[in-house]
Amino acid sequence: MSASDHIGKSGMRLRWPSPWSAGAVLIALVVLAPIAAVLWIALFPENNIWPHLIATTLPRYLWNTAILMTGVGALAAVMGTTTAWMVSRYDFPGRRWLEWLLLLPLAIPAYLGAYALVDFLEYAGPVQTGLRQLFGWQTARDYWFPEIRSMGAAVIVLAASLFPYVYLLARNAFREQSASAEEVAQSLGAGGFQRFWRVGLPLARPAIAAGVAIVMMEAVNDFGTVDYFAVQTLTTGIFSVWLEGGNPGGAAQIASVILFLVIFLVLLEKSSRRRMRFFNLSSRHRPVARKPLAGRAAWAAAALCAVPFALGFVLPVAVLLSHALDNAGVWVDRALWRAALNTLTVGGIAAVITVAAGVFLVYGVRLSGQKLPRLLLPVTTIGYAAPGAVLGVGILIPLAAVDHLMADGIEAATGIDPGLILTGSAFALVLAYCVRFFAIAQGAADAAMGRVSPNLALAARSLGRTQGQTLTDVYYPLVRSSIASALLLVFVDCVKELPATLLLRPFNYDTLATRVHEKASLENIGDAAPAAIIVVLVGLLAVGLLARANR
């Protein structure tokens, strides 16, 4: 009798799950546990404040979040779709450069854009200073200037940072469209705008909707921007109710509202992708030829594409670089490099664990003939959609309870108080990163292994290789580049993550993101700039990888 088989009294043959299958299920459950914890705590809190939330702050949080999501989604859709149409349909000066430069705003976390915009437009900034010198104004009472820290500014900053999600998907959709439909519309007398509105846009609508859904999810996740602009959203509500009000149950209840909102957006994005199909009725598919532009039209098209790039990348980088150069002494600050080392440590550990777990899960599901692992595989991607603040609630509250039980047990047995082992270290932070960005590793591993012929694995098994040896000797050499890309992408996202880091970091433990947030919150952009520049440089690595993959 093998170790995996057991003969019961009835003579039925029962097959125990293999270690690969059991491990895959365990990894999936760990990834899903924080989400389940948020729902459980929200349903059974120690102090139910639902009536108080509904009567006081929750409507305001919901209203502001809805306005933010709608505004950011609409503006990002306009910016991303317009620029994608211009670079895919027309030739104008700088088009080849702008086609890739429009991806660079993804390297700028929105909270960095917020700090830069306020510094640029505030009373002591170069814009208002220049206006006072130009017109001879003496004080702010001599002229009107729009309020910078407002909902409108938050919408503009977030849209400028996130529109490349829409741009990338829309550009690919426009590229895939056939020249036949364009030629038919042109033969019927349709002008440039009519061809866009009646032909190009309807065919690309599912891709645009998917990009907008991603943008709206990122807007819900944001904390640094809305906190800096004093816009009260559901995410800032979690911090207020938990850290200022001392009510973790209430924070979990707000987090559950965000979770349901995000699930709705995920379903919307999935629905859009299911409809993202293009059928070529002609036997020969011809891409649409770009129309050369000349004169004012050419320069107008170049300016139309350059403005979002300038707003989302050039302005933040210019402001941050200016402060970083003016405060050169900050570069030798030990606290900066300690934060950089902390970021490298927790981000690197989280990236390795996340990618290893993703590979194990995908490989285990492929080996398993059981339904449970296969059902859990797509569900594990929900962590990427869940905001960092939500995961912070779902991780810290249960871990704190476990920590206290462990400390009490150890003290009772040994008489020594070990302190908080899990929440007092970077363990909770690494776990949050793993859950938050597990979808990246899982998606990369699944796509890479899907390109490997099953015959290679069967041949290896027939030659006596074990399942583990097949993974290391056959799969790994063929998927190594995809694994390396996943490691880089997860690490970059860990570096930029702010809400989960603020909630879960140990006491007096700074990362680059938290250092930038804390210094900027104190209006000390000069000290924040060097850390911000390092974050941007790390983000550029991921954007370069994304650009290479979408050539």
Protein traits:
single chain, 551 residues, mainly alpha, MetI-like fold, 2 domains, two-stranded antiparallel sheet, two-stranded parallel ribbon, 24 helices, globular, disordered N terminus
What is the secondary structure topology, with strand pairs?
Blueprint: E1 5-7, E2 13-15, H1 19-43, H2 50-55, H3 58-89, E3 90-91, H4 95-101, H5 110-121, H6 126-135, H7 151-176, H8 179-187, H9 192-221, H10 224-228, H11 234-244, H12 248-274, E4 291-292, H13 295-326, H14 334-367, H15 371-379, H16 382-385, H17 388-414, H18 427-436, H19 438-450, H20 454-462, H21 467-496, H22 499-504, H23 512-521, H24 525-549
Parallel strand pairs: 3-4
Antiparallel strand pairs: 1-2
Helix pairs in contact: 1-12, 1-14, 1-15, 1-17, 3-7, 3-9, 3-11, 3-13, 5-7, 5-13, 7-9, 7-13, 8-9, 9-12, 11-12, 12-17, 13-24, 14-18, 14-19, 14-21, 17-18, 19-21, 20-21, 21-24, 23-24
Written overview of the protein:
With 551 residues, the chain is mostly helical. It folds into 2 domains: 49-278 and 286-303, MetI-like fold (Orthogonal Bundle), CATH 1.10.3720.10; 327-551, Orthogonal Bundle (MetI-like fold), CATH 1.10.3720. Helices cover 74% and strands 2% of the residues. It has helices spanning 19-43, 50-55, 58-89, 95-101, 110-121, 126-135, 151-176, 179-187, 192-221, 224-228, 234-244, 248-274, 295-326, 334-367, 371-379, 382-385, 388-414, 427-436, 438-450, 454-462, 467-496, 499-504, 512-521, 525-549, and strands at 5-7, 13-15, 90-91, 291-292. Residues 1-14 and 278-283 have low confidence and may be disordered.
